[in-house]
């Protein structure tokens, strides 16, 4: 079941976490391809972590402003 307008249920929060993880993985792959290396340093993983958190938060924000039918900025039909 989808969340109602201006609320987020646990399933949607879990989906947001999954989006954050996928975003972080894609960020790591992109950084490794761009830098031609994969280093286990904070300088490598910091932008990856920020990208993943940003992806998860953006998913939760867009979910927060949609009703259970997926229509943005519209209250639940009666």
Description of the molecule:
This protein has helices at 10-35, 42-64. By secondary structure, the chain is mainly α. The chain has one domain (10-64). Helix 1 (10-35) runs antiparallel to helix 2. The longest helix is centred in the first third of the chain and has 26 residues, at 10-35. It is rod-shaped, with a radius of gyration of 16 Å. The two termini are 17 Å apart. The mean pLDDT is 84.
Q: What tags apply to this protein structure?
A:
78 residues, mainly alpha, 2 helices, 63% helix
* Residues in helix, %: 55-70%
Please, what is the average pLDDT? 84
> What is the helix/strand order?
HH
**What distance separates the N and C termini?**
17 Å
- Tell me the domain tally: 1
Shape, principal axes of CA atoms = rod-shaped
Q: How many helices does DSSP assign?
A: 2
Secondary-structure class? mainly alpha
**Strand percent estimate:** under 5%
Task: Tell me about the largest β-sheet.
Answer: none
Radius of gyration from the alpha-carbon trace, in angstroms: 16 Å
Please report the total strand number as a whole number: 0
Low-confidence stretches: none
